[in-house]
User: What shape does this take?
Amino acid sequence: MRAVPRAANHADSARRRQWIFVAPDQLHAELGALRGREPKETGVVLLESREWLSRRPYHRMRIALILLNQRAFAEELRHAGLEVRVEIGDAPMSELLRRVAVDTGPLLATDWAEREMRAEFKPLVEAGLLEVRPHDGWLTLQGDFDKCRRGTQWSMDAFYRRVRQRTGLLMDKQGEPLGGRFSFDTENRKSWPGTPEAPQPPRFPLDALRKEVRQVIERDYAAHPGELDLEALPATLQDSERLWAWAKSECLPHFGPFEDAMSARSRGLFHSRMSPLMNVWRMPARRMVDDVAAMRLPIESKEGFIRQVIGWREFVRWVHLRTDGFRDAWPVAASPGLGGHDRWKGSPWKPAASAPAGVDGGARPATLGSDTPLPQAFWGKPSGLRCLDEVVASVWQEGWSHHITRLMVLGNLATLLDVDARELADWFWIAYMDAWDWVVEPNVLAMATYAAGGVMTTKPYVAGSAYIDGMSDYCGGCAFKPGKDCPITPMYWAFLARHEEKLKGNPRMKLVMGSLRRRTPEKRQVDHATFVHVRDMLVQGRRLEPSEALPFR
Ligand SMILES: Cc1cc2nc3c(=O)[nH]c(=O)nc-3n(C[C@H](O)[C@H](O)[C@H](O)COP(=O)(O)OP(=O)(O)OC[C@H]3O[C@@H](n4cnc5c(N)ncnc54)[C@H](O)[C@@H]3O)c2cc1C
Ligand code: SF4
Assistant: This one.
């Protein structure tokens, strides 16, 4: 697919249509400015900016997901009778669009989900080249969010209850929640013994479009990390429907009970893998919620899934919007961060062009003062800790892993190591194909690391090896043994001890802080020495071995 050549009279014919700029994460014909348009009177502009796609050293799967879906979307719009221009170039998206506007005149746009995109396009809006229509793809209202403030904190539970009550979703005729409770979270915590069998996600044929995108990635994005498996990625609308049909029939019946389980034998277990498509709006969340609400499913699966979508997904988006990506309380990094890429690679990352004015590196919250550089283990250098190495390997293969691996392995270990949360957030943004600032930043900076303090969680999500052993099968194949020589539990106690002053007043930490106080000085010393040893080894990119003289043995 090429950019449409500019003929002398093109500008005149172009101006007879209403041109609409559709951002790479707005790929739906019934979203915002595109909704209800007459095809023959409408033109759509899509952008493939090499600057934007190489602003950070994104996983190849993320680039492939965007190129495949954007190109497939362009064909679908053409087929429906719209004129479509795809502008490809090294320049930032805003610059490519400014050039298009010379031909088309001012364009309509849909408000951006990403703060970074809003910042990039602001000068075009101010210059009258873009007229912004509301993004109508969200499922909740500002009032839902405003009413969920509890003291200094936004409460997801309160938000979720209110959305259920207001919409009537999963409510009976008497206004009571189906099944008698709003949340079946306590039923969502089973480990997975190997049965029921976990489903294999669908594969997609290596067709002409996938071959074309493979060539583009090999030519223009060869320096990007991560494996490229184009047959794992949906591209067309039919592909999205196929993945969603698979998720509904194969995953959702068992989704609830095994939602928190982790396994090396099945990376995805019963998770839907829909987030990459949802976040580029190929599959609208509204459609998914309606489908699941109408399905016959065990209540703990039905409620569990809907809670993730109308609860967590919408909630984190509001937190990001309301805190301006945590800029309301924290300093901001000057330029987009690289998540420790250059230390691992040993050479500087080179984007296709400089980032446009207005794009910064995001907020740097640090409630606990954490500043350890992200270990190279996150880039694939073996750490010797099987849980970490297993999850990291899966991320660099797939550009995705499920929620509990993100929270209780990657987030947990980074938090126990006092990793700089900004660097961790940039790493997640780079490594995951579903990452966009509105969703990755609240999940990393507030939920997984507690860097933004108790803005949306009541306590840090940290755990020792008993949790990982209980919820996964990682420990069986690990050189370390949980409860014996595994360093993660001493690191957990060391974390609590280091941050005792800041955490001791937290009512939800009362019990563990009491246990910490009863820990003997000798044990505390070993805890601290373990933390220092593991942190230093991993920061130096070295592998931990149980045979070494470790302080915790
Ligand atoms: C540290 C960390 C980083 C994360 N980064 C991202 C990210 O960059 N992009 C992203 O979409 N999700 C992110 N999440 C949330 C969650 O892990 C993913 O949405 C989920 O794993 C996607 O896989 P799935 O589609 O199979 O989800 P399922 O388990 O099938 O859940 C269904 C849907 O619920 C939504 N959802 C569930 N939990 C969350 C949540 N906490 N925040 C937002 N949506 C949620 C997603 O849209 C997901 O597709 C992150 C979570 C953590 C702890
Ligand atoms: S023994 Fe410890 S390091 Fe190894 S997999 Fe289990 S929790 Fe992870």
About this structure: The CA atoms of residues 171 and 178 lie 5 Å apart.
